[in-house]
Amino acid sequence: MKRHQKLVLAGAMLLILALAATQGRHVRHLRESESFYRWMLAAAVNERLFQDESGQFKDKELFEQCNAASQKLAGLVPTVAAVAKEQPKAASEPPAAEPGEVSEIGKASQEYKNDPRIWALARSNELADARASFLKLARSRQLRFAQDIQYAEAQESGVGLFNLFFGFRKVAANFIWIQVDRYWHQGENYRMVALMKTCTALDPHFVEAYLIGSWHLSYNVTAKMMDTPWPQRKWDPKYSACVGEKEKYYYVAINFLKDGIRNNPRNYKLYFDLGFAVYKQKLKDYQNAVKYLSEAIRQPHDRWVPRQLFICQELNGQYAEALAGWEDYARRFPQTSTGQEVAPRFIKRNQGHLLEKRAEEAFKAAAAATDPAEAERLRKEALKFREQAKDIFMVLGSTEGDALRMRIEATELAEQKRYMEAVAVLDKARWESAELWDDLSHRIMRYKADGNLPISLSEQKEMEREKDAGLCAGMPEQERQRVQQKNAQLN
Length: 491
Known about the structure:
Blueprint: H1 3-50, H2 59-70, H3 80-86, H4 104-108, H5 115-122, H6 128-139, H7 149-156, H8 161-167, H9 169-185, H10 192-202, H11 207-220, E1 234-236, E2 241-243, H12 245-263, H13 268-280, H14 286-296, H15 305-315, H16 319-332, H17 337-368, H18 372-396, H19 398-415, H20 419-430, H21 437-450, H22 457-468, H23 477-490
Antiparallel strand pairs: 1-2
Helix pairs in contact: 1-5, 1-12, 9-10, 10-11, 11-12, 11-13, 12-13, 13-14, 14-15, 15-16, 16-17, 17-18, 18-19, 19-20, 20-21
């Protein structure tokens, strides 16, 4: 081979090596940026929704560093106002949540359409220092939400036991999940939780494992367990709640789903199961149910998801929001049975609830008014709202509409101090609607107490239980006072 040919060949080889090295650095940068981006989304969701902090991890400090550096990139991470302007929401979509001290990245993460901007931020030069800090902290296991960095490094480390195992981590996760299912069928529930966490640690994007695991914990494991009476519960600082043996499983399920959300912040099913399956169905915590169902509909979701949000808004007393949601749903899906039949029924129901609420507010304003003429005007307005509510519940029909109408009639009787008649009406009404049973029974006990009517032994015990509802041993004094104040208002 001639000398010049050798030189050309050597130059070509050097060029190939240089290109390979450049490409290798580019691939490494993308891998590290992807892990950084996933961590950033997890940290943003945690800041905005959960506010879970742990002193042994450095996620919060690093996330603050990211937000400080992002200020150099004007317009890359939009403000809440800019997001609202660029992305107008449907009528059924709730407004952006505004928890205290949420960063700009945290606010932007609320909309999945901003993900390309957050990805650009994660791989930008302006966040190079933060990205380097992320890699250092993740390798030393000082970050709670860094899931993929060890796996990414294993891919680059050549052939080895670690590489071979983690190269098949999804397969390993599937095998472990089979063992979880076997333990369930064998009744060995106590052995499931550790393996469930191992499974999702191997494959943080195994969404079905989070969903089925939380279902096992909150439904199957607790199916034959009795609710723990409030005096027998104990305050658990880990969950910031009063728990007994049964209730502890609910909060383990909640934390399991929260981990799933951090690792998969764009999967609506995790938000839905947290809001509906646990908070609504099991804990009757409608405020948190609304919170997480609102997040579910901000992700790409199935058509039936918003319906549970509207129901929980109604249960939480957010009648205007529920009404707007059902009206929008009926407009968007007029050809479906839900749009034609179900939505109109809920629309009427929430219209009636709103009128009831306005009547109560008008009565309170009348009682507080110092001007007799103004007090009389407000009282007439309240009576008008109340009559309109009764008319709507009459049109609503069915046993449900009858029960809601009779509840208003009982209220009117009680205002006239005709407590015995009010109790009789409520007693009939509660047999018409299982959904209203607890509310109507509570009103019966209150009217009996106000009218000095005989109270049964079971009612006396229920009233005693209601006084202790939400209270348990070891509860912080501030929380105890808050619950006692709430109970006093209800009674």
